[in-house]
Amino acid sequence: MKVKRFLSESMQDVLRMVREDLGPDAVILSNTKVDGGIELVAALDYEEEMAPESDIASNFISQGEPTPSQLARMHADKHVKLQREMDSARRKIENVKSTRNKNGLARSEQLKPNMNDEKINGPIEHSTERKDSEWAELSDMRAEIMEIKGMISRQPSNNESLKKSRATSLLQQQVEKTLQSLCLSIPIQKSLVESIKGQLDFESAWDKIGRQIEGAVSVERTEIIDHGGVISLVGPTGSGKTMTIGKMAARYVMKYGADSIALVTTDRYRIAAHEQLKVFGRILNVPVHAVDEMNSLDTILDSLSHKKMVLIDTAGLMHSDACWSEQLQEMKLSKHDIKSYLVVSAVGQYQVMCSNYYNYKVVGLSGAIITKVDEAVSLGEALSFLIDTRLKASYFTDGQRVPEDIHLMKKQDLFERAQALLNSSERWVTINSSEKGLDQDSFLFHTA
Length: 448
Hints:
This protein is α/β, with parallel strands linked by helices. It folds into four domains: about 5-45, no CATH class; about 50-155; about 165-215; about 225-430, Rossmann fold, CATH 3.40.50. The chain is about 50% helix and about 15% strand. The protein contains 16 helices and 13 strands. It has helices at about 10-20, 55, 70-110, 120-155, 155-180, 185-195, 200-215, 225, 240-255, 275-285, 295-305, 320-330, 350-360, 380-390, 415-425, 435; strands at about 1-10, 25-35, 35-45, 230-235, 260-265, 290, 310-315, 340-345, 365-370, 395, 405-410, 430, 440-445. It has an eight-stranded mixed sheet with strand order 6-5-7-4-8-9-10-11, with helices on both faces. It has a three-stranded antiparallel sheet with strand order 1-3-2, sandwiched between helices. The protein has a two-stranded antiparallel ribbon with strand order 12-13.
């Protein structure tokens, strides 16, 4: 875009100057009354999409996106300002040159009749000092002009930089929106968005985010059943502890046989609470022991010391219940080395997951098992929980089949499933109003 300033005594004259210089396609950007007449700024090849300079654009951050005319006007004003500075510098140089020429002529006339007189030595030295001072001033002004020219020449590159910065901002907004749809926690979202600065396209940015999420999730590299020992599963009611115990036991029996494993339940607070565990025991031909008033946890574990693996199913009580504290203290104070794993339902809220973590970490958690993955509408909560607590994920379950629906967790499993859920949730469901007794024919509900 070519921007030029015109000055005349009347509006008719200045408009005529614009037409003669820039032609009929020129665009008037501004007109201002100044000393001596009217100053008009016009542009040729005006570009609507021109971005503002970085030092001007900051004035509009709090006011929203500037209009195209504002952008062009800002660019033109800056161009005119720079042009004025160059004109001023040129005038200074011309004045210095004119003064230097006049002084040179005067000195010449003065020195002609007294060229051999020793008394002129003083004035000659004085004129030399003045000449040096004038040359120094001239040099400074030339440097100033060069700096102004450099500022003008850098304008296109600044525009390119602004375009790139704006593209990066749009990419970050797109990524942030996708992360919100995944239901990741806010701090994790902000950290991931900050990490993609410098990325030029969504695909490469999302690949980087995937690698970061997978790198932040800790997992067990081998199965719990391969380690043996005494393993307890803790967690709230409904998290899937008993079903997971059954799947682990079945997996162990298929691999090592039923002779070296036993099941234990500490839930003596609810009627028939351990009936499901007994059903698994009968099916797998594995003994099931219950902790009660007559048999303490340590007494039972002493009797099972010859077993390679003992799986303990605990009662899912509210942490405000006195029996809940009693149960955890019994496990914590046991003389046996009990490794506890927190069972976390993927359908729960992130805050509830974290609350359970703080309630159960008193027993010293060795890791986590994520259950009901098949029932979740998003897995961002479970991912955020694993990232924030740094608990190692051992297994995840995704169905009711025993033992098919329990799997050793891998770093990429939850993130890949989270993306699959996000893609599958972007659909519309139509509900017929006649089936619901509604007045209208139908309503559309977005499932995302």
